[in-house]
Amino acid sequence: MTAMLNVRDLRSYYGQVQALHGLTFELNEGSMTTLLGANGAGKTTTLRAICNMVRSTGSIEFEGAPLAGRSTENIVRLGIAHVPQGRGTFTTLTVEENLQLGAITRKDRANIVSDIERMYDHFPVLKQRYTQQAGTLSGGEQQMLAVARALMLRPRLMLLDEPSFGLAPLIVRDLFKILGKINREDKVTILVVEQNAQLALELADQAYVIETGRIVMAGSAKEIANNEDVRKSYLGY
Amino acid sequence: MELFTNQILAGIATGAIYACMALAVVMIYQAIDHLNFAQGEMAMFSTFISWQLMQWGIPYWGAFILTLAFSFAGGIAIERLLFKPLAKAPILTNVAGFIALFAIINSVAGLIWDFTIKQYPTPFGSHPFLGSQLISTHQAGMIGVTVLLLIALYFFFQFTRIGLAMRAAASVPESARLVGINTSWMIALGWGMAAAIGSIAGMLIAPVVFLEPNMMGGVLIYGFAAAVLGGLTSPFGAVIGGFLVGIFENLAGTYIPGVGNELKLPIALALIITVLVVKPAGLFGRPIVKRV
Amino acid sequence: MSAVDEVVTEAPAVEAVPKRAMTLGYGTSLVMLALFLIVPLLVKNFIVFQLTMLLIYGLAVLALNILTGGSGQFSLGQSAFYAVGAYTSAILMEHAGVNYALTLPIAGVICFAFGFLFGQPALRLSGVYLALATFALATAMPQLLKLGYFEHWTGGVQGLVVTKPDAPFGLPMSQDMWLYYFTLAVTIAIYIFSVNLLRSRSGRAFMAIRDNEIAASAMGVDVALYKTLAFGVSAGITGVAGGLGAIAVQFVAPDSYTITLAISLFLGMVVGGVGWLPGSIVGSAFIIFVPNIAEGISKGLSGAVFGVLLFLVIFLVPHGARQVAIVAQQLVGKLKKN
What we know:
The complex is a heterotrimer.
Chain A: E1 3-14, E2 17-28, E3 32-36, H1 43-50, E4 55-62, E5 65-66, H2 72-77, E6 80-83, H3 95-102, H4 109-122, H5 124-128, H6 139-151, E7 157-161, H7 169-185, E8 189-193, H8 197-203, E9 206-211, E10 214-220, H9 221-226, H10 228-235
Parallel strand pairs in A: 3-8, 3-9, 6-7, 7-8
Antiparallel strand pairs in A: 1-2, 1-4, 4-5, 9-10
Chain B: H1 2-32, H2 39-55, H3 60-83, H4 91-113, H5 137-159, H6 161-171, H7 173-178, H8 183-209, H9 217-230, H10 235-255, H11 264-278
Chain C: H1 26-42, H2 45-71, H3 78-96, H4 100-122, H5 128-146, H6 151-154, E1 160-161, H7 175-199, H8 201-211, H9 213-218, H10 223-249, E2 251-252, H11 259-272, H12 279-297, H13 301-316, H14 320-337
Antiparallel strand pairs in C: 1-2
Helix pairs in contact in C: 1-7, 2-7, 2-8, 2-10, 2-11, 2-12, 3-4, 3-5, 3-10, 4-10, 7-8, 8-10, 11-12, 11-13, 12-13
């Protein structure tokens, strides 16, 4: 396996405040990787830095091409879908329009309709509500919509920022099942930031732990899950 | 009764113009959260361009189309050159920018075409419409062109990809970037369309108010009143607001004693302040929640 | 996640100005005062008249500066308050025979009341909405002044001619010269009042509101009261300036007080530096002399020149004359060291 995303010495800043202090990591093609860490450790910042949404230094290469200097929308066009924290729903638009927007940069318009149908298969609740304003959906439904919208890009790499946030436990299981399926069948590489460390570690191949803007542990998801410190801090047993 | 019907129809005709101005104002407000105080002057300048083209012998509809194209390009150019760099500046700086634009356009129009009042042609004529005394053919034309424009805009925003992208960019800019939309260009496009819509308002109202650099002052105030009444966050509301304000203006002028043409602007002022105080979000707008 | 991500603040209305930087030092103030006292003795009558107008517009810009630089509220409608002040003075002098000097405090009080009342609805508006409401006010004002109903008092479209006062006590001084020193005295009094106002408790309340309204109210500042008060004070000072202006140009008419005047005053504030009171005079000089030069080149050019210069200011020196003054000070400091 080759590295699809290569991040070296990433440092990010909010104004004068430095949030990341030299992160280096890589994602293998077709893998599912999880990023663990406490609140404020820099997980969200890492995802935002990949999409050039915060001021950063260091190098990020996607399939060999440097991302530095590219705008967010340009990075997305390379096939990197980002499900942001807070879901980023287009609240004034309908559910179906939200899905269409996910595919707005795609050239193969003919396939978009069938892709929307596929999303409705994955998330039947969206089908029931497809003419509704997306802002009227519940938090969980909006989270599914956000994942579906990202998938509409037919991404090569998908960045998910706490996809389980605000979802009922059963729905979280379903969502992760779907993510696993997408990862295996559609060969989408996934980087997921997750509070629910246990679930994330179950599904992921790789894991990184970050603390105050630095990577403190890296390894296969199994190794990390068995690590004493990680179990105490993130898994709670 | 005939007077009443007559005033309603006349109100709808001027309301069509206010609807266009309000729509132009709302398009820019949606894109950048600022009111374009120079919207009227931009429309006035476009109208002068069309007049100049006709002076050079181009027929009315040819000049009309060329002016639309010019205004569209001009709107984009103004945004790229002058307002894109101010995107993150304080509100005051932006207001100053709009005021500066207002002064420049007004002054340059005066320099090129001087301040004397000019006749402006109408392609519809000024006969009674369909033999009725209620409304003139030009007024009917104003309504007709506006309705066509509104239908075209509806289809553009509802059924084209770029229309959808523009709505997305206005709704949640960050998410729009995350699906790959170049939001910066969507803003420029909004400016171009606003300028083109404004130019239609200018060309339609010019036969009524006559062509001169200050012709749009009163129209813009009513356009603002319409936008505020309908809700600055709702293009649909702006259009409804335009027609309502037009009808209101005509009825007030006819039926409230002492309110003639000479109180036109104070009425618009009263309307703006009343709406802003009583229902700041307007009839169809979303309330705005401010965070610390 | 990092806590920083979630903080979404809207762009501030006005950039904060440190309080200390709002005035000049004693030395510079004295030099300025001496200049203002001596220069008129050395120049022609017409220049004296222009200097008088410089002080009058300086007052009007200062008033706007208190409102915007002090409390963070916008007004594109200062011409309306200026007009009310001018008409108050003119009507009192010509119809009621009131002494010109006495008309000024009356103009001030009436405009204070007008501003305070206008501030009531404006209270609920902020940022662009307030700019819109005041823009509409400025646009509507000339029509209100032309109303047939008030024609007996206002002279309608024709306006009113105002008699220029002679120097009192038989002082050997031309009318223009006397009016200049009279205006200078009023200006100094109002300037000192304004500086003290902004340094006072009320001034701190204004600035707290400007910097963060919600936080200010959480600190116990009566936001409603102070915002309307700022409007009232600003309108009152503008009214005095309007009254002085009516006496100086000896004429009031509706079309002297259009949106163009409001734009000029706004421009004067931006050029002088928002929140920097001494900049008001710089801004005033700008709006008096630039049109003179521009109109000399071509009629109707002044608007374009104004607009272009305004863009240059906001792009190159967003803090206006204050920024220039600071840079100059640093340069002088460097030269001294060498």
